[in-house]
Prior knowledge:
The structure holds 2 protein chains of 2 kinds.
Chain A: E1 4-7, E2 10-13, E3 19-25, E4 31-38, E5 42-51, E6 54-57, E7 65-66, E8 76-78, E9 87-94, E10 104-105, E11 109-113
Parallel strand pairs in A: 2-11
Antiparallel strand pairs in A: 1-3, 3-8, 4-5, 4-9, 5-6, 7-8, 9-10, 9-11
Chain B: E1 3-6, E2 10-14, E3 19-21, E4 23-26, E5 31-38, E6 44-50, E7 56-58, E8 64-68, E9 73-78, E10 87-95, E11 102-103, E12 107-112
Parallel strand pairs in B: 2-12
Antiparallel strand pairs in B: 1-4, 3-9, 5-6, 5-10, 7-8, 8-9, 10-11, 10-12
Amino acid sequence: EAQVTQNPRYLITVTGKKLTVTCSQNMNHEYMSWYRQDPGLGLRQIYYSMNVEVTDKGDVPEGYKVSRKEKRNFPLILESPSPNQTSLYFCASRVRDLDTGELFFGEGSRLTVL
Amino acid sequence: AQSVTQLDSHVSVSEGTPVLLRCNYSSSYSPSLFWYVQHPNKGLQLLLKYTSAATLVKGINGFEAEFKKSETSFHLTKPSAHMSDAAEYFCVVSERGYQKVTFGTGTKLQVIP
């Protein structure tokens, strides 16, 4: 089954404790991206990656890091989480060509930073 | 630069009546436009997309949208609402060849029995 898998789905952590949210897709998609969803703000893009070792900032990259060492994986790293990073996070992937490819989303990861 | 505005944060309709969810966009170049739906505690699912072919786009579950360049709009419609349509809907824009994707703030659709 074609899918985007995120882990963990739910996480409560404390300020400053490094964490990683993993994202994996089994569709051989070149493009992967991370979003955060906050009430009234919709989804805002954090980072995206066009292919292995190619990443770029979205609209809200501050406080986040990403890496793309393998085509299927695109982890989101919070080096020193703060309460304003409490949010619902989505990973998505698609084929490279935007005109032909829809975004496939994971189920989301709800993060709470105390 | 690109942006998208969803004109209503909440829309309430009775079951069996038409649905209209409004979206206006801004784009310097030819845009690709999408509508996504998010059911409670779920990820997002593509409803339909416009990528410069026919201006009237048909999607899943009876939804359709019309691209109107002169009005910079891409409104989502459905002739008859069903209870299962209750969800949050997002309008999305991306400029052709530009990989950044911009989401609207969402419209929550309530369907009253």
